[in-house]
């Protein structure tokens, strides 16, 4: 499966071979997009499909291999399917013919271990509906909804959509404003956007576009400037801006150019508040000062991109950290949602990018092993502000949520 780089909610479909997982996807999407066969094991690798769910909006369905697959290859398929538990916001467990035993119970334990909410569909109910005893046991033991369903004649499809909407966490599809809750209608927000070797030709980078849209959605006014234009322009502006948001790489220049009575933060920090574990970032960032010689730092990028000589994650952040601490530090960079090869305990610090290309759930799952192990985590923008001595100013706009 290609690594998830989509901010839509992700829903995983799980169950035994031939229970009708692919048929369920076809019913939900109203299209024959998943291969359906009487041959067990038709779906071998997780496959992503897009759909629109009433009350949720655009979402991604992920079809998985059967949890009862057999043989060495089957075990690999199951393991690959369970890997998606790290990136999904909701799981649907498909059962049929009243079969509910160890494979299902083990999978439910995996759901709980990954904090994945779930619901259960008893498919092929036209052949055999779920027994009252089994339904009662499932509801009483797991406290989750379970309903009969027939993918070939999905008359209660609206009920399934309603269950999905009720079960999936609201944070998966209803995003916290980036800055909309910090401004009033008519307020001016200055966006400082360098045009350098990392700026894409002919367009803005995604975080900049997301902030522009959020300001406009909340009836604010955006003024977009390059860093060398800020000082003179802000002096002339009327009304005065209430907030300035900068690309983290030019934090020092922005700090010098923006008067102290105008709040200043960065695109990365704004994203960190919306998607990341903001409180952990606040606690973890000052731990930068505790780094020692030969400590190893893990840098997590949310996307793969062409690396330049000015690359922020691979070049600039390591340079800033070495310069600030005066220590000999080692760095690993992991892009997208690729596997972290080293044990998490090898790291003294984890640095997460803003995460504009992945979901809130994916970021939290990515950071959870480090947080559980007591390893400090920070964010690109917070790190850059800290090593340049402007951390307190950069987080001040969010002091009163």
Describe the 3D structure.
The chain has 401 residues and is of the alpha/beta class. It has three domains: 163 residues, Rossmann fold (3-Layer(aba) Sandwich); 91 residues, Rossmann fold, CATH 3.40.50.11420; 115 residues, Rossmann fold (3-Layer(aba) Sandwich). Helix content is 34%, strand content 18%. The two termini are 38 Å apart.
Q: What is the CATH T-level topology of the largest domain?
A: Rossmann fold
Helix content: 25-40%
**Radius of gyration over all CA atoms, rounded:** 24 Å
CATH class of the largest domain: Alpha Beta
Give the uncertain stretches in residue-range form: 1-5, 34-44
The domain tally reads 3
CATH architecture of the largest domain: 3-Layer(aba) Sandwich
Share of residues in strands: 15-25%
> What is the assigned CATH homologous superfamily of the largest domain?
P-loop containing nucleotide triphosphate hydrolases
Report the structural category: alpha/beta
Which key phrases capture this entry?
14 helices, 401 residues, Rossmann fold, 3 domains, alpha/beta, single chain, six-stranded mixed β-sheet
Please specify the SSE layout and strand pairing.
Layout: E1 10-15, H1 21-29, E2 47-53, E3 57-63, H2 71-83, E4 90-96, H3 102-113, E5 118-123, H4 132-142, E6 146-148, H5 157-167, E7 188-192, H6 206-217, E8 221-225, H7 230-236, E9 243-246, H8 251-257, E10 263-266, H9 267-275, H10 278-284, E11 296-300, H11 312-325, E12 330-334, E13 349-352, H12 360-372, E14 377-379, H13 380-387, H14 391-395
Parallel strand pairs: 1-3, 1-4, 4-5, 5-6, 7-8, 7-9, 9-10, 11-12, 11-13, 13-14
Antiparallel strand pairs: 2-3
Helix pairs in contact: 11-13
């Amino acid at each position: 499966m290609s690594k998830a780089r989509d901010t839509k909610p992700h829903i995983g479909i799980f169950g035994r071979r031939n229970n009708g997982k692919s048929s369920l996807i076809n019913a939900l999407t109203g299209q024959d997009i998943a291969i359906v066969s009487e041959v067990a094991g038709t779906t071998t690798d997780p496959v992503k499909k897009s759909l629109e769910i009433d009350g949720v909006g655009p979402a991604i369905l992920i079809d998985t291999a059967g949890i009862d697959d057999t043989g060495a290859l089957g075990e690999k398929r199951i393991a690959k399917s369970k890997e998606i538990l790290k990136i999904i916001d909701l799981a649907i467990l498909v059962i049929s013919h009243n079969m509910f035993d160890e494979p299902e119970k083990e999978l439910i334990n995996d759901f709980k271990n990954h904090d994945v909410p779930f619901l259960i569909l008893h498919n092929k109910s036209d052949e055999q509906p779920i027994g009252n005893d089994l339904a009662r046991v499932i509801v009483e033991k797991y406290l989750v909804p379970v309903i009969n369903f027939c993918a070939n004649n999905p008359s209660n499809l609206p009920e399934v959509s309603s269950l999905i909407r009720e079960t999936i966490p609201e944070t998966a599809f209803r995003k916290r404003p980036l800055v909309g809750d910090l401004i009033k209608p008519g307020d001016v927000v200055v966006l400082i956007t360098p045009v350098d070797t990392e700026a894409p030709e002919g367009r803005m980078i995604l975080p900049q576009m997301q902030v522009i849209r959020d300001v406009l959605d909340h009836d604010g006014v955006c003024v977009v400037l390059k860093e060398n234009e800020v000082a003179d322009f802000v002096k002339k502006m009327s009304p005065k801006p209430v907030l300035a948001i900068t690309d983290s790489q030019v934090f020092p220049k922005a700090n010098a150019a923006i008067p102290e009575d105008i709040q200043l933060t960065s695109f990365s920090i704004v994203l960190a508040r919306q998607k990341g574990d903001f409180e952990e970032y606040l606690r973890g960032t000052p731990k930068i000062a505790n780094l020692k010689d030969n400590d190893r730092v893990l840098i997590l990028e949310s996307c793969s991109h062409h690396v330049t000589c000015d690359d922020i994650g691979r070049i600039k952040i390591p340079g800033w950290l070495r310069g600030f601490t005066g220590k000999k530090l080692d760095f690993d960079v992991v892009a997208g949602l690729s596997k972290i090869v080293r044990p998490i305990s090898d790291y003294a610090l984890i640095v997460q990018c803003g995460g504009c290309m992945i979901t809130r759930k994916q970021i939290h799952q990515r950071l959870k092993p480090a947080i559980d192990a007591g390893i400090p985590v920070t964010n690109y923008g917070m790190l850059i502000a800290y090593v340049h001595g402007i951390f307190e100013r950069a987080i001040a706009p969010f002091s009163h949520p």
